[in-house]
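Regression test attached.
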Amino acid sequence: MSATESRAARLRGLGRGAAPYLLSLPSWAYLTAFFVVPMAAMLSMSLATGNPITGYVFSWNFAEFGRAVSQYDTQLLRSFGYGALSTFITLVLTYPVAYWIAFYGGRHKGTFLFLILLPFFVSFVIRTLAWQFILADQGFLFGTLKQLHILPERFYLLSSTTAVIGGLVYNSVAYYILPLYVALEKIDRRVVRAAGDLYASPVATFWKVILPLSAPGIFAGFLLVFVTNVGDFVNAAVLGGPGTTMIGNIIQYNFFDAQNYPMAATLSSILMFLLIVCIYVYARIFGAEQIQEYAA
Amino acid sequence: MTDEKSPNKGFRLDDPAFIRGLTQPRLTRRGVLGAGAMGMAALAMPRFAHADSGAMPIPLDAKWEKWWKQQKPTKELVFANWPYYIDVTDDGKKHPSLDNFTKATGIDVKYLETIQGNAPFYAKIAPVLKSGQSIGNDIIVMTNTWQLTELMMQDFLVPLWQEKLPNFFKNASPSVISPDYDKGNKYTVTWQSGMTGIAYNPKLTGREITSFEDLWDPKFAGHVGMMSDLTELGSAAMLKLGIDPAKSTPEDWKKAAAILEDQKKKGIVRQYYDQSYITALENGDTWITQAWSGDVFQAHAKGFKDLKFIVPKEGVMLWHDNMMIPKGAKNPLSALEWMNFYYTAETAGLIEDYVNYICPVPSAQAYIKDVIKDADVADSPLVFPTKEMYAKTHDFYTFKSFDEYQAWQSTFSPVVQG
């Protein structure tokens, strides 16, 4: 009797030990099918030689990496430049909004967040295309301003770096506000009050207390926005002009038009590698603890 | 990219089929074609009343002859085409030409508008064809681009049994018989042709446009639209230089790339556009742009009546969208039957009266004029070009290998991507 009991207990114990692994099985399967396999396929394609007619052979051909960097260095740098600038502008624009909602939103917080998310129910591409109409040279905005002689006749904004970065910022707003809001909302108000009690000015309270405590939100938003924006190709294609091509456009071109699959795969690998480096550097500079804290 | 020749590929905020229903299509197109025809008045010359070119069917090799003779007639046909590329009734539900075909042959047609661009469509079907499976279509339509050459090179197409296409040899325009990209029409027959010329807004340019030189005019700096498709972009520059793109050499390509680079450096180019060039022209972002003839007709129907399409004095590019049978097709005999049925004045005329690109069947002109009684379509040199017009058209360069294609791409891609 006691033997069977202890056996059952042992089995239960075993089950308990294995449970986390069994429960995580779907995630592992998912990661393997949709991350590990495609990634391996991409890396092996980047080392292949051949052409679409004769087929491709895996051949440890690292030369493509050198070619990719020398041929597309401008576009790579530009993408990281656009990505960094648009992320920074988005942060500066959205922080006050998130701050205001978190601290002064009162019982309408949910409504405000919903209003910010509302435009994002419309497809990303359509929202970007809509700017073509709003900012059209002879459209209702610039056309009117030109008629009133507020703008010179030849003025235009579309097909420029400004338009591309503007588009990137516009499309990232919600992705930055939400993590910032979560981080700011979590800040213990007693800490803020304590800063005041200790004669910190509101400005000092912000810089010394609120901003550091919201760092996890800044980092989460940075991850979401920077990574997406560096690899973006829609804004450059729709709002850009000569000299605004980003690396995403180059990858798309190499895949569909040039049918240079090794180059497309190589550029994708390089892009991913550089993004991981950027995230690592950011985490080192601003400290990984806060990030872990956020994750927890 | 290359590909967005069909008037309304991709999504648009409006639906041309819907607009057609609202805007008295005949009248609109009459205005459009009339305007186009005026520009060509000087060219109004005898037409190809009959297109008997003397071309004869070419016999199949033994293997394919045997294959064709083993095929059994079926009562089905799956036809994949580009959006808005066939006649429709006003309610948008029926295609009279296909219904006539079903009445005449008993073959039911499943008509699909699934082709959005040559490159993406090729990327979609190539892996399936490579694995030896059927893509489920009996006829597909592709432009004479590298992707079409690739389909032939990869042996993805069924050679046509030309004996079964007597109407093609009787009625086809010489411009579509034995083209450079498919000698002897071994695999393809043309569905529609079209022109890449120049479109402009006279109110913004302030003057008439006559030449490719105008795309390089510094007066229009910041408002000139060029195409991001490298075949179209390079060909336009070569026409400006007086080089025939079809006979060009890699040296010519470099010269063309140099003047394009110069055009960009001087700030003349506003943007390198995909099919969205027409929106840019409508919005006034561009004053003058490389353009596909059919898109300008569509723009007129949407109410942008100022826009003009011209054939520059250096000539225009002429492209062809072609019907072909992919390997693994389940109803190849039905496919041949349709191709043959299409090459009649009645069917081609019925379709052309709606599509308004360039009709590959010259005798459809009389049919549209006398039976459909739409003289403006029939008399338009943009739909039924005159001999003189045809003399001004140029074909795309036909790539003989992937290396050649790559050489072209790498010559012109820095212009667009710099």
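Expected vs. actual: identical. The CA atoms of residues 233 and 285 of chain A lie 29 Å apart.
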